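<instruction>
Derive structure tokens from the sequence
<data>
Labelled lines for chain and fold
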Amino acid sequence: MRYFTDTNTLFIRGTFRAASTGINGGINQVSTLIIHTVPTGWDRNEPGKELERVAAGAGLAPAFFGLLTAVPVPHCCVLQYDFVTVFITAGIRREPPESAGTINIIVTSCEGIEDSALLESIMGATEAKAEALAALGLPLSGTPTDAVIAACEGEVKHQYAGRITDVGRRVRGAVLQGIPHAVQRHDSGIQDSQPAFFIFSRFKGEHWVEWTPHNCPYYPCHFKGQCCDFCYCPFYPCCDESLGQWSAGANGNKVWNCAGCTLLHEPEIASHLKKFPSASLKEIKLRKK
């Protein structure tokens, strides 16, 4: 899985088995997940055509699931919790619940999940969203236009996704963390050019960390003059053994360790990926040679 944004759209690319409650949703094999910001005056009667236009404009195959929002894409929050990554956009208007904005959630897993568990993870994300809104003191459990996509890649490893399972615990934790930040980013009108990125860290105890390239205390963590725009690699876990290796995690499971990889920290490589965000890892590696 990898993701990138343009002015109005978040694209998440991969080889997904996915379930969506959004426009033209259901359960299917898809190559792209989309959150698109609609412009003022957008025709609400043709949401499917709007997404088709976005996909066609990006040169994407028609195998995609998409969600629409009025929230600017740079207000999105991205939360990585081990093998689960969650994307949240949240716009809440302080008006009657029937006109209270939109909250979109996309859950992705780099470990395969049974179809029934994909649906269960949608339930878990929705439950956590309602809990997070209650904790903010908002008089609603969601909005009339909320939607969730749950997607996974790889060989199936998880049959269940309830809140006490490996999947459910991570989905719940990410949504509880992400909703308040996504609401705050929208309310404050933050003008960042890219989404906020949070990672669940076990360094000096388990906690969430918001990563920013500014004032990083670990710079330079690889080499002097490195580029930090991709501190958390959009190709992770690439499973390319020329760049990393599988290691034993704290809980005994195997985790992808790419601590020694400097590929995307090389300024020329990082510059190319920023200019061509849909470039494949194979293409990136060829440029290094």
